[in-house]
Design brief:
Elements lengths: L12 H4 L3 E7 L8 H11 L3 E7 L9 H8 L4 E2 L11 H8 L2 E7 L1 H8 L6 H8 L4 E5 L9 H11 L4 E3 L3 E4 L6 E4 L3 H11 L44
Parallel strand pairs: 1-2, 1-4, 2-3, 4-5, 5-6
Antiparallel strand pairs: 7-8
């Protein structure tokens, strides 16, 4: 059985004020059918989060793309190489434009391909290329999590510095009635993302790049010029 970790979801008012741009990939599992419920929950608990949804081909069998677009206010992205703008491929946009990539739910097929560094789809390439946190919420059919091959997949994923695997919950298989490991609630996934990197509150906007530092403020127009032999000390930047 793979080893995972869980982090408590922050319910504070400060947490509710956080902002982030997330790209959420849903794969082809029965848990994907609950995605509209979870997105409504997210909009209530993180109202300043912007979320774009990516659906694999198999995920489209379990959930409606128009419904997800209506909930998020953003077009659903397909896992395809064919785009309207060939100069902006899907994978490079996702890797560059978002603060985090969530795979919720994450099927065995998707996670196995990712652990093998497969570039077979834009969503896989985006997860391989981004420096932002990648949070995976796996779901397993009965008996699959105990297979040593699957355990090795998640050991490899867990070794990637910006990858975070969320512990599944115990549930019941709809097809067999057997106990199995099902997708964790979205609050566990959001907690893992926020723990991976502090998300700014609305009032935490960074200063403009061209704003002068306090010590670099320009002198008034009538300030006297320095004497010819004045020594100017230039501050040296020190890396943290």
């Amino acid at each position: 059985m793979p080893e995972f970790g869980t982090i408590e979801f922050d319910k504070s008012e400060e947490a509710r004020s956080r902002r982030a741009k997330l790209f959420l990939v849903a794969t082809g599992t029965l848990s994907t059918a609950h995605l509209p419920f979870w997105l409504n929950w997210l909009s209530s608990n993180r109202p300043h989060y912007e979320v774009a949804i990516g659906l694999t081909d198999s995920a489209r069998k379990f959930v409606s793309a128009p419904a997800l677009a209506a909930i998020t206010g953003s077009p659903v992205v397909g896992n395809t190489w064919d785009t309207a703008d060939a100069m902006q491929p899907v994978h490079t946009r996702i890797a560059a434009d978002y603060d985090g990539l969530l795979v919720f739910p994450a099927s065995v097929a998707f996670t196995s391909s990712l652990a093998a560094a497969s570039g077979a789809s834009p969503f896989h390439l985006a997860a391989l290329g981004t420096a932002a946190p990648v949070v995976l919420a796996p779901t397993f059919p009965p008996g699959v999590a105990a297979n040593p091959l699957v355990a090795d997949v998640f050991r490899r994923l867990g070794s990637v510095p910006n990858y975070h695997v969320v512990e599944p919950r115990k549930g019941t298989s709809r097809s067999t009635g057997a106990k199995t490991d099902v997708t964790a609630p979205l609050w566990d996934v959001i907690a893992a993302f926020e723990a991976a990197g502090r998300t700014p509150a609305p009032d935490d906007a960074p200063a403009p790049d061209d704003a002068p530092a306090p010590d670099d403020a320009p002198a008034p127009d009538d300030a006297p010029a320095p004497a010819a032999d004045t020594t100017v000390t230039v501050p040296v930047s020190v890396s943290a």
